[in-house]
Amino acid sequence: PLQPLKQPRGKAQHMKWRDILSAADAHASTHEQPQHKTSNGGDDPSDSVQIIETLQAMTVDLNRSLEKDPPVKLVQRYLEGERNLFAKRLVSMENENLHRLIREKYQKDKEFQGYVDRYISQFRMLLESSQKSGDGLKETYRASETGQVYTMLKRAIKG
Description:
Blueprint: H1 17-30, H2 45-66, H3 72-79, H4 85-93, H5 96-108, H6 110-133, H7 138-143, H8 145-158
Helix pairs in contact: 2-4, 2-6, 4-8, 5-6, 5-8, 6-8
């Protein structure tokens, strides 16, 4: 089981992103998931699971780029396994100001632009994988928090 995060002295409600990422890396390295190999051209349902996990991890990078330091309680929940937490957070923060911030950062910050472009590309791969496999989940993916982040990013960078 994960140990509770120690809150930094004098900062009872927020943590630094580097602390979060270090804790997540430490957790991930002790809980490695087996890689799924397919011989059917990548239409294994585990491919979709891997893409979703990648998208969920990417929302951490997006959040890190958009806000300084997250509340410790959110980080603890993420480390306890609530992997979609930062996607939910982005969706809950969506408004015109966030769209403007995303658009401006996308135009000026190459690292952020890379995060956004990779997220959009990965989500498109998820939709294509769903369509190829015929699993009927394409609309479910679009309606999920992960899909809502995709839609929000697309709207924001188009202006």
